[in-house]
Amino acid sequence: MKKADISYQEKLNELRLDILHPNSRGINFVLLEGDTDIRLFRKFFDLEKCKVETIPGGNKKLEECVDTLVNIYPLVLGIRDSDFIKLNSLEYNETNMFLTDYHDIEITMLNFEPVLNSIIFEYSSKSQCQHLIFRDELIETISLIGFLKLLNDKEQLELCFKSGFQDLISFTNKSIDFEQYIERILSKSPNTILKNKEELKRRVIELKSTNPDLLQLTNGHDLLNAFAKYFREVENKNGINGDSLGSAIRIVFNKSLFEQTTLYSSLTEWQITNATQLF
What does pTM read for this prediction? Predict the structure, then answer.
């Protein structure tokens, strides 16, 4: 069976058996959302003391898995994207669960200048003093997408966000054709409870007026796709996409940068409290 075909229940059963095996005594189980998280985080943990695994099914299944397993073994923890939790100032008290500093791990990585510089120097002629400005301009350009996703999260609108948006970006005007994007989203969202385009726009603009932290709002994959579109269209770097940029920043994001995150500090506290070794 391929790894991608394993169901949540099958993975839970596999981990339960692994945890109960005598050889797992004292081993930490670090559970993550997806394969790209594995590629990043396994280089930070002591793999003689930790097993780093992905849980199929998204954040909720990850939380459920950790909550189930800590009842039989205490050295189980999970790391998930913050998504909109911090932006909404929600208390997060899920057992042994830890959040990324910003919206997701990609935005967290791109908050570090060495990581940001690595992709802009590679694919752009911009001077270093422009890099943060350029990132923030891109974030602002696609921010309406983030606000629409935030609205969907807040009001459980059941919008489907599988439609692309890169072709709707104008780097000349530093804007996105948001009306066209909404039409795309609505065409793919038959179950949404709000089908009126103008009402959606009104509520999104209302959210935008609250002026939230855009690093907590913006989806990292969306930002990387916007970077990739810019590099292809403006810098003539063909073949660049969001996935390849994601791989590039994971390579650059090293242990010394990870150690500067709030996530690392929280994991270190957990390590001390549980008298174990993660790193």
Answer: 0.95
